[in-house]
Structures are given as structure tokens and as C-alpha cells.
Design goal:
homodimer, 162 residues, mainly alpha, Arc Repressor Mutant, subunit A, two-stranded antiparallel sheet, 6 helices, elongated, binds FE2/S2 (inorganic) cluster, DNA-binding
DNA sequence: GGGAAATAGAACCGAACCGGTTCTGTTTCA
DNA sequence: TGAAACAGAACCGGTTCGGTTCTATTTCCC
């Protein structure tokens, strides 16, 4: 299973929340509460996103984070790159830092480039704005119809906490 | 960095080698030598690919592995799924096995689907045949031009071995 | 018929990576 | 001046995964 790191996972969730009200700035603690990601993780992620110029921060009391640019111009590829480094499926991706050592006889060599480009383009084709616009047609499902009752799951679960 | 597991990495290399001569069957040891992947790893991978009906095997002396179908009908998505399980970037991918627990308030929810579909389609759009056809225009680069001399790297490196 | 050569399958191990926390420092505002 | 918020780094334990090894089974050839 190709897995996206939790960092990017949570990061996208958080950013999507921010993209709902593009102008508005929110404190890390507020965002943590809004997304149910642990406050520590939230802080870590937000700091990384500021470094990548995806967010801008205001320090001090009444501080907070806001999108640095309109959500239409932020792609998930950029987000993932900010949090997890360059998007490359295999070590053979970047011809510069090529570490596989068998390139001379490797039969797949330039096939890798195809794959990596495909993924990168797919990820670059989705903007934060698209992520944020939820399908409003589908109303929240009637609680009656939900399979297992809420009794079994802890109320107000917080993810990103042991 | 979104990383592809080594299993899939090597698997694609090995399959690409097989796709060069679609009809021909090769022994695991032969393939290992041809791809510079350790024999143990090669065996493990080949067995998994047989289970997924991507390869067919012939046991006993003079045994070996061959593609189960023409390489044009094998996609990298299928290969990765065979070796690493279902392709899903995040835990929120499959609506059935959804484990995140905050779906009710998660702002990104249906954005995930978009992302997962995008990469799945990208991966399903590349066939093994395409991977195998190398670009014959570019001749092997002149050794003179290579930056670091081969002295520093062990000759005939075998990957997948400590 | 027996043995060598090959695949089938499972169990096992160590180590790198990663998710998550914590602590200290700095900025801002009331 | 102190509380509230961000900045940045260090740290730590656990899971996962790459890789190996061992045993069983099948097949061919002598
Ligand atoms: S695996 Fe590195 S060039 Fe093919
Ligand atoms: S993170 Fe699970 S639904 Fe959004």
C-alpha cells in the first residue's frame, strides 16, 4: 500500500479547514480543536507549512495562521512536498541523487520517470480550493441508519495521540 | 516523500526484465543475476507475483517464471497492488474500512477520494509494455563524462543485500 | 527410482524510520 | 510585565519493513 505520511495527511486536513475561510487567521489551538488533531502535531505541521510559504503566521497574543495565498493556487503536491520532501516514488526518481547502483543494467530505468511524472502531475492537478469545496448535496447521514452505534467509539476522539 | 516500497520497486524492475522477452521463462536465480537484486528477495517477490496471477511458474528442474499475460495488459497499479496491497494514500481512502474516527467533522473527507482516484488512475495508465520499451535513441553515456569515478563504488553491486 | 534443481511457503530478526511529545526561546499585546 | 501565542530543536519508543533462513514439495534427467 502506498501510504501518505501522517504529516501530510493531517496537514491537508488542517489546510482544508483553513481554506474554508481563506482570509481568516486561526490559532494553532483552535485549529487543533477544529480538526481533532493533537495540538502538538498541529503545531509541528503549521510550522513546516509556514517555512514552505504556504501559510503566514502572526506571533504573540492574538496570533495565528492564515493561508499565504488564495487556495486556488495551492496544490496538494506543494503541500506534500512541504511536509514530506520531494515527491518521488522510488530512489531512482531523481537522476541526480540516484542511489540504486545498477542503473547501467537496470531494465526499468526510464520507466520510473514515467511513473513519477504521472504521480506528480496527478497530485499537482488538485488544488486546495477543490479539496475544500465539499459536496453539499449529500446531507449528513441520518444517525438512525448508521451501522454501529456511537456507544462503542469514544466521544470527541482525538487523532494523533497515543 | 511518498515512497514506493522496495518490494514493488524491485518487483517492477524484475517484471520489466521479463517483459523484454514475453514468451520466455526464466529461473529465479537467473532473474536475480540479471537485475542485481538479491536472490532471496527475488524469490520472495516472484512468489507473490505468482499468487496474484501476474506470473506463472513451472516447478522442478528446468522450472522458472514467465508472464501470465501479454505485458500490454499488465499495469503498474496491478503490480503494486499485488506486492503491497491496495493502493490507497490515506486511511480515509476506502469508505468501508474508514478508521480515522473524525469523519463527521473532517473538512477534507471527500477531497481524499479525489486524490486517491487520481493516483490510482495514473498508476493504472502505465502498462508493463510501456515500462519495458526503453528509449533506444539515447546511447549509454560516455563514461568519460561521469562525475565521480567508478573507483569509489564496488563493482557489480548487488542491491537488496546488507 | 533417486537425486539434483527448482519453486512454495512460512517464520524470524534487526534496524531504520516515523509519529508523537517535550522543552526552551522569542514575539506580541493588553 | 506577564500571559498567550508561535519558532525550533531535540528526543524517544514502537511499528513496520527489508532481508534472511529453513523446510516442504514438485519435476526432470540420469
Ligand atoms: S532501479 Fe535504479 S535505474 Fe533501475
Ligand atoms: S481524515 Fe478521515 S474523513 Fe477526513
Amino acid at each position: 500500500m502506498i501510504r501518505l505520511s501522517r504529516l501530510s495527511d493531517y496537514g491537508i486536513v488542517i489546510l482544508t479547514r483553513l481554506a474554508r475561510e481563506p482570509g481568516r487567521a486561526m490559532a494553532a489551538s483552535t485549529l487543533a480543536r477544529a480538526t481533532a488533531v493533537s495540538t502538538a502535531m498541529t503545531g509541528k505541521i503549521l510550522k513546516l507549512l509556514v517555512r514552505a510559504d504556504i501559510l503566514v503566521s502572526q506571533r504573540g497574543v492574538r496570533g495565528g495562521y492564515a493561508l499565504a495565498r488564495p487556495p486556488e493556487t495551492i496544490t496538494v503536491a506543494q503541500i506534500i512536498e512541504a511536509l514530506d520532501g520531494p515527491i518521488a516514488l522510488t530512489s531512482c526518481a531523481d537522476p541526480l541523487v540516484h542511489a540504486c547502483g545498477i542503473e547501467s543494467l537496470c531494465p526499468a530505468r526510464d520507466g520510473w520517470r514515467r511513473i513519477n511524472r504521472a504521480i506528480r502531475e496527478a497530485l499537482a492537478g488538485i488544488t486546495l480550493a477543490e479539496m475544500a469545496r465539499t459536496v453539499p448535496d449529500v446531507p449528513p447521514p441520518n444517525l438512525e441508519t448508521r451501522p454501529r452505534a456511537a456507544a462503542s467509539e469514544p466521544a470527541a476522539a482525538t487523532i494523533g495521540a497515543r
